[in-house]
Amino acid sequence: MQVTPPAPTILASTVRRALSEDIDRGDVTTEACVDPITNGTAMLNAREPVVVCGLPVAEEVYAQLDLLVDVEGHVQDGDLVDSGAALATISGPATSILLGERVALNFMQRLTGIATMTRRFVDTLPDGSPTRIADTRKTTPGLRAFERYAVRCGGGHNHREDLGAAVLIKDNHIAAAGGCTQAIERARAYAPHTCRIECEVDTPAQLEEALAAGADIVMLDNFDDDAVGDALRLVDGQALVEVSGGITIERVARLGALGVDVISVGALTHSSPSGDLGLDWS
To answer: pTM of this prediction?
Structure first.
């Protein structure tokens, strides 16, 4: 399945900021060491098995630096490749290739790491499971569109895009509103008819209250596996069930077998290690 990358305007502006951060004062090393008329070729290689993500970003880096640089991809974002796989060939003016090397790698390593971690979670679900692995809003400021793209490349799903995208009543909303029922009733009166109401619950009693108040989705926060099973029996199809908090890859198969609808994992975007990629001169 082909995944749509971030919108061109977001892609261009984010890459522009990253390049400015790295090269606004020039590249004293390359300027000192490399003849400006020299051409060269470098291979972008995987140094471990990864799910590739970020090739359109690398292309944008070099498109902004120098149109004479050609980025020829050999795989597609979302592909699972082995260690040693050639992901792209980058050729053209040597000074421009070197100028963009770190920025292109920073993006690709970060996004590839997220895509790879997501694929591990997705692949841990039981065969045929309809359970979704989803990200959260725990993203790097300014990089949400990129990191959520990486989650999709890994086979995961995106949670709400931003605070305006959906109603998600959390513990502090409940406290500020004066209770779970009050928060859900106010949300129901305020939100458009096309908007589902999701409510986070911390206890079985809160779960019962949220169901009685008509929540469309309940988020079981920090429930252990036995408590999730009990909650599913209580819900009995009255609402969609999301599980969040304390999610490790070891729990995914058990939660999927229980039949939860969504497992949301903040670690996909806040704790995935970067993929090991390198740009090797050839």
So the answer is: 0.96
